[in-house]
Automatic annotation (TrEMBL):
<feature type="domain" description="Glucose/Sorbosone dehydrogenase">
    <location>
        <begin position="52"/>
        <end position="346"/>
    </location>
</feature>
<feature type="signal peptide">
    <location>
        <begin position="1"/>
        <end position="26"/>
    </location>
</feature>
<dbReference type="Pfam" id="PF07995">
    <property type="entry name" value="GSDH"/>
</dbReference>
<protein>
    <submittedName>
        <fullName>PQQ-dependent sugar dehydrogenase</fullName>
    </submittedName>
</protein>
<dbReference type="InterPro" id="IPR012938">
    <property type="entry name" value="Glc/Sorbosone_DH"/>
</dbReference>
<keyword id="KW-0732">Signal</keyword>
<dbReference type="InterPro" id="IPR011042">
    <property type="entry name" value="6-blade_b-propeller_TolB-like"/>
</dbReference>
<dbReference type="InterPro" id="IPR011041">
    <property type="entry name" value="Quinoprot_gluc/sorb_DH_b-prop"/>
</dbReference>
Length: 370
């Protein structure tokens, strides 16, 4: 599954042939079609919302509406079914930076009862996870409490993704705060996957006896769970390899001694992609694959999986069509919602904002044509 930067020069017709190990790349579609018959592929794309400012987190509520966070403004907007985004509140004490601000969102598994949504906030002197309480009409919110504090802050490498697991716990991806040694430091919450109960307490089966579930991560911006409970995380690499990892309790994933499959330290990823083609952020599991949004790579990756194993070759869609893709979220109707990140000022591997950016797009998942 080793991919290189020449895929950035391929046109849309060749986007299905990105593996350097494949001979005869000039006619990729038959091979790709055969691989995809076991799962779903992107179909129709429709625009849900436009004109957003640096959307980052996205979560669905039981009524089918969605919440989206804006990184720099610290606003939370609600998108009712079939409606336009409506600002419902601003999270306090958010400090925007090159990569920081209001980041991930995750609705409580008990939202119908507690009306609580969790948010990852970059601030000073530290980053934190907070609980937000929505009003009964879902048109306003307030910060209810700080759930976890003490995550080191910096200009970059905040991590920021939140996801509730099938175990009912809140999983949190953090970055190394631009200090690689943090990832290997058991005393630091940075460069880790954290796992806590909704009230902020530590689950009794956490391997460290602390909030730390796994270590040795550079910058985790994607967490998702398969139907069998397998936990996946996307990780931004340095200059060699971005990673898709399967998370296991107490394991060290190698950073800073190893990157991708280079180096002999830590758990090996199940897939690696060159940063020119990825710089991954959000992920989702659907149709037998992990779907990975790519920032610098400006595409949506489909990585077939079978539980904790890779089950085929990655395939790229929408290459440079929508720009930088930040978040990928499974919607209640079986589609994927993706957010673009073209207004965040990132020029490396990015494109200037276009009229209408930033957007939320709905991607239907369909069976491939025979």
């Amino acid at each position: 599954m080793l991919l290189n930067s020449r895929t950035r020069r391929l046109g849309a017709a060749a986007a299905l042939c990105v593996l350097v190990s494949l001979p005869g790349c000039a006619a990729p579609e038959p091979r790709a079609s055969q691989r995809l018959t076991r799962g779903l592929v992107p179909g129709e794309v429709t625009e849900i919302a436009r004109g957003l400012a640096m959307p980052w987190g996205l979560t669905f509520l039981p009524d089918g509406s969605a919440l989206v966070s804006e990184r720099s403004s610290a606003r939370v907007l609600r998108i009712p079914q079939g409606g336009d985004p409506e600002p419902i509140g601003t999270v306090p004490r958010v400090e925007a930076s090159a990569e920081g601000g209001l980041l991930g969102l995750a609705a409580s598994p008990s939202f119908a009862r507690d009306r609580t949504v969790y948010a990852y906030v970059s601030s000073s002197p530290a980053n934190r996870v907070v609980a937000l309480r929505l009003a009964p009409d879902l048109r306003s919110l307030r910060q209810d409490r700080v759930v976890l504090d003490g995550i080191e802050t910096a200009d970059r490498h905040h991590g920021g993704r939140l996801r509730f697991g099938p175990d009912g716990n809140l999983w949190i991806g953090t970055g190394d705060a631009f200090s690689p040694e943090n990832a290997a430091d058991d005393r630091s919450l940075n460069g880790k996957i954290l796992r806590i109960r909704p009230d902020g307490s530590v689950p009794p089966d956490n391997p460290s006896g602390t909030a730390v579930y796994s270590s040795g991560h550079r910058n985790v911006q994607g967490i998702a769970f398969g139907p069998d409970g397998t936990a996946y995380a996307s990780e931004l690499g340095h200059r060699a390899w971005d990673e898709l990892n399967v998370l296991r309790p107490g394991r060290d994933y190698g950073w800073p001694e190893s990157e991708g499959r280079d180096g002999g330290h830590g758990e090996r990823p199940i897939a690696v992609i060159h940063p020119d083609d990825a710089s991954p952020s959000g992920i989702a599991v659907a149709g037998g694959a992990v779907w990975m949004g790519a920032l610098g790579g400006q595409r949506l990756w489909r990585l077939p999986v079978d539980g904790p194993r890779a089950d085929g070759d990655p395939v790229a869609y929408f290459v440079e069509r929508y720009g930088r893709i930040r978040t990928v979220e499974p919607a209640p109707d079986g589609s994927l919602w993706i957010t673009t990140s073209n207004t965040d000022g990132a020029t490396w591997g990015g494109t200037p904002a276009r009229p209408g950016d930033d957007r939320i797009l709905r991607v239907a998942l369909v069976h491939p044509a025979p």
